[in-house]
Amino acid sequence: MHQVRVWDLPIRLFHWALVSTVALSFYTMKTGGAPFVFPVEIHGRAGLVVLGLLLFRWGWALAGSHHARLWHFLHGPRAMLDYLRALRRGPLPPYAGHNPLGGLSVLAMLVSLSVQATSGLFLSDDIFFQAPLHERVSSEVSDSLHTLHHWNAQLLIALIVLHLVALVVHRLKGERLVGAMVTGRKRLPGGPEKVADESAVPARGSPWLAAALLVVAIGVVGWLWQL
Q: Domain boundaries in the chain?
């Protein structure tokens, strides 16, 4: 076994911040929302934070650290089929970053979360809550986005459940994905030459880029927050 540095600090902070904020979003809408007096307001604020996090993540996916880049965790159909066959047979081919199915799952969740956060900007419950951009679209458009927001939430729940199941399956097969997202390092069998996704490439991205993306995300969220 050898250890590979995979996830740098920005991507780890993003991941756990997103997990916490999405959990809060679902809690405030799928339960009574206690102890919050106006859970829908908390839900809306959490959605703005999710949007800011996603702005950062899409930027980091284009020019951030090696394993976090979009091109790195997208694989062709053949690679996905081969990995699926390996998943059924037993030992899995080692990937330092996202494996072919995991990369597809991450992309699907990022897209779904982006649709959810963006559509939420135009909604209103006509009683207690009005999203920042609600008045900038017609009632027909807002109603259509409300329907999209509802059904995409169901899709998002399904994607999250699949993600959690995949974590359990990989843990049973000896791959500790959660631990890697905490420490940034992943334990892999064999030497670096046996890893399928160029694990020897440094994981770090530019701290200046991370700071710039953070400033942009905070600026957008701050502007929407005060509307």
A: 2-225
DSSP letters, 153-204, are HHHHHHHHHHHHHHHHHHHHTT--HHHHHHHSEEEESS-GGG-TT-TTS---
Tokens of 220: 């957008």
Residue 145 to residue 143: CA distance in whole angstroms: 5
How many angstroms separate the CA atoms of 106 and 117, rounded? 16
**Residue 190, CB half-sphere, CA atoms under 13 Å: how many?**
12
Contact 54, 113 (CB under 8 A): yes
Fold of 2-225: Fumarate Reductase Cytochrome B subunit (1.20.950)
Residues 173-227: tens digit of each pLDDT: 888 899 999 999 888 776 554 566 655 555 578 899 999 999 999 999 999 999 9
Q: Which residue from 153, 56, 57 is spatially nearest to 106, judged by alpha carbons?
A: 57
